[in-house]
Amino acid sequence: MFRTPHSLPNWILGNLSAFSLVVAVATFGASLTPSLMPRDPIIQSLLSGIVSSLGYETALLVRTVWRYMEIPQLSGRLQRAWTISGLVVSAGILIYSLSKAANWQNATREAVGLPPLETGAPLFILAVGSAVFLVLWVVFRLLGILRRRIEALLTRVVPERIGIVVSIALVGWLFWALVDGALIRNAFRAADASFMAADLLLEPDITKPTDPMKSGSADSLVRWDEIGRRGRQFVATAPTAAEISEFSPNQAMEPVRVYVGRLSAETAKQRAQLALDELIRAGGFDRSTLIVTVPTGTGWMDPGAHDTIDFMLGGDVATVAVQYSYLTSFLALLAHPDYGVDQAGALFETIYDYWTKLPKDQRPEFYVHGLSQGAFNSQATIPLLDMLGDPIQGAMWAGSPFFSKYWAEVRDNRNPDSPDWRPTYGNGSLIRVMDQFGGLDGDYTPWGPIRIVFLNYGSDPIVNYTYDSAIFEPAWLSPPRAPDVSPDLKWFPVVTMLQLALDSMFALGVPRFGHDYIAPDYIDAWAAVVRPDGWTKQRADTLKDIFERRSPPR
């Protein structure tokens, strides 16, 4: 058992370690190496400070276990030589890392077409990262003092070793209880209330529909003030027949868009039933194509995915969605991951059951879609095997999170000669994977009755993240790499996992890289799934030109 030295200088020196310093500086340097997404200096500083702190504390733990096991230690001149060597090595690693930091950071920025960082960025990262490290160092020291105080009290009534184990458990539990109870839960409540308030605001530039067939209109079953901000945006900004006629002059109609907000009904099943009733009222089942889509966490519907299919099919399409959260996808998954799955399952089951009762020669083709968390929720609730007797026609999922059901199956059981970032699966008659560089064409068996396309970018950390990247090098780092992944990206234990986790939180903002999917790639994905009549490369290029001139809202 180690006692806290009485004087502050001795206490500080007792908590310093040359070995730990080397590990901390090494992890600091590793955190500066290229990753999937570019980071602002302040974000990089936070990551570097946290990673170096974790490295330091891990090394201290190793030293503590070494002493506890009473393994011989260096002393005297050897100890001083070891300390001096550690300081020299740490300084060398730090100087080398800072000299390379700009090049490492710019390697990622170059891969996604961004300008280089300013020359002073590495020094800023060092200053802020060091401040973060010091704050965490003090926090860990205070936790250590608390643990030893509890141990001292316990050893009066229990054996010393039991006191050590129990004190560690109590402090760990207390720390997590404070973080989870006082910080995380309250933060989620505050975020939920804030996002809900924003969702209720009626934007002056988005007006209530006057067309009685539109969701939220006076004749609609869904109230305009309950449809949610993202739902109102989705309904009100749908392309008009006049706009669609630019691409399809001979056949253009208003697409049917049905959206039910979280406030529109109490339960997931009630909202799903309301969506079905509204879809029937709006004539959705009279269209040639029906798309059941699951929005992202906030309820956002990507215009790049939905406007494109409306144009492609001349507006002869009905899209239905139901909101399940106000939070962003990341927060929604942490706060209430079951909400999205429950709502997606209820919506699909309700629409599918009604669709199967319609005459097969008079009902629309049925497709499902989801982006990001919407893709995860959709995949979690689509019973492919239960539909074989009366299957839907296909699915198009974009930016599937790494833990998504069917994406994980395709990635983990891909054909051996295909890369992890754009795998081929089986003979390609059921599932194909594409990115912004292609993937739909190849030595495939012709499409079968069900067509599923995954649209994933190689630089998307939400798609590529895995927990075991803390221990094993991810397969997507093996050559050949995706064209949008820097060749300078190296794998480091634990550090790479933390880099990817941070990248996942900042994966938007660079169109056609990371998690920012754009219309031209949606066009190719939808074309492979729905196979519009008379579709050619020239038609595809024309539509892509149209969407390059459009500026969809986010």
Q: What would your notes on this structure say?
A:
The chain is α/β, with parallel strands linked by helices and 554 residues long. The chain is 51% helix and 7% strand. The chain contains 18 helices and 7 strands. The chain has helices at 8-14, 18-31, 41-68, 76-111, 121-154, 160-200, 229-236, 241-244, 268-281, 303-312, 329-335, 337-356, 373-381, 405-412, 461-464, 495-505, 519-530, 537-549, and strands at residues 256-260, 289-294, 317-322, 365-371, 394-398, 431-434, 451-455. The chain has a 7-stranded parallel beta sheet with strand order 1-3-2-4-5-7-6, sandwiched between helices. β4, α13 (373-381) and β5 (394-398) form a beta-alpha-beta unit. The radius of gyration is 28 Å and the shape is elongated.
Q: What is the number of E strands?
A: 7
Count every helix, treating DSSP H or I runs of 4 or more residues as helices. 18
Helix content: 40-55%
Unreliable sequence segments: 1-5
Structural class: alpha/beta
Radius of gyration: 28 Å
With strands numbered from the N-terminus, the spatial order across the biggest sheet is 1-3-2-4-5-7-6
Shape: elongated
Mean pLDDT: 86
Order of helices and strands: HHHHHHHHEHEHEHHEHEHEEHHHH
Distance between the termini: 58 Å
Beta-strand content estimate:
5-15%
Largest sheet: 7 strands, parallel
